[in-house]
Write a structure and sequence with these properties.
The chain is α/β, with parallel strands linked by helices. It contains 9 helices and 10 strands.
């Protein structure tokens, strides 16, 4: 975790992402970048300077963004962190991806409004970044402190393709000083008997002798419901899921489970792309 990117629209959930990202950057001695996207009615970067005054609302948004980002930069630098701030003019999700690629970020922390945020800028971009980003993305709903993240729930079908993501979860748990709970959600459409699941999870875990991990099975009507209900039961700090690009939490679980968790889970969700 050398460079953390925090896209922000300065909303409450984005503020929560900013704060936990700064805590994580301080703990890891990481560089931190704050990115704000501004929607404009035209290609702002190509607009002649003398015509900018014709768009006072855009100028006001730029002024506010510079002020807010400046405060974040001063806060980070006061803690001894290297920090950069950026304003980009939104052309869709590619704006964030291009930024990640150009600056070699290896971790993203974003806020999400949940179901209320689907239509706004940060909500829309969170959904897209979670689905397509090739680096880990931590999605935060509300203010949370590092010491509240002592349990990481890793939900998976425990196929071999999930092993690379689980290694990242182990590394992240070590960094956070957290315990891992591995969870298989048993659903009616793909029901397995308990001994089958236990055997599958044991075979998976045999490659991870160094993992401080407990294993759990939970029966539910849907994977999303099972993950959320089990997370609430054990009071996990973070739910980690391995996504498969735009195909969601493996083919086993369907195309939208990760987005559903991001929308409905109250705890932070760590999304790891199997295709990264």
């Amino acid at each position: 975790m050398k460079k953390i990117l925090v896209p922000t629209d300065f909303s409450d959930c984005a503020r929560a992402a900013e704060e936990i990202a700064i805590e994580m950057a301080k703990k890891a001695n990481s560089e931190i970048h704050f990115l704000h996207l501004i929607m404009t009615p035209l290609e702002w970067v190509k607009l002649p300077k003398e015509k900018e005054k014709n768009f006072p609302e855009v100028l006001a948004m730029i002024g506010r963004a510079k002020a807010e980002l400046g405060q974040l930069k001063r806060k980070a630098e006061k803690l001894g962190l290297k920090c950069q701030i950026h304003i980009n003019f939104d052309n869709g999700r590619e704006e964030i991806y291009d930024h990640i690629k150009h600056h070699n970020h290896d971790f993203v922390v974003m806020g999400s409004h949940g179901t209320k945020g689907i239509r706004d800028l940060i909500g829309s971009n969170t959904q897209k970044v979670v689905r397509y980003a090739n680096i880990p993305v931590l999605v935060v709903k509300s203010k949370i402190k590092m010491n509240e993240l002592s349990k990481i729930l890793f939900a998976s079908n425990f196929d071999d393709q999930a092993k690379s993501s689980f290694r990242k979860v182990i590394d992240f748990a070590s960094f956070m000083g957290a315990d891992i709970m591995a969870l298989y959600v048993n659903v009616p459409g793909r029901f397995l008997e308990t001994d089958e699941i236990e055997s599958k999870m044991k075979n998976f875990m045999d490659d991870f002798d160094n993992a401080n991990c407990s294993v759990h099975i939970y029966d539910a009507l849907s994977v999303e419901r099972g993950i959320i209900k089990f997370s609430e039961r054990v009071n996990s700090g973070i739910t980690a899921v391995a996504t498969h690009g735009d195909r969601g939490l493996f083919n086993l679980f369907g195309s939208s489970i990760t987005e559903k968790l991001v929308n409905h889970s109250e705890s932070p969700v760590l999304c790891l792309n199997l295709e990264e």
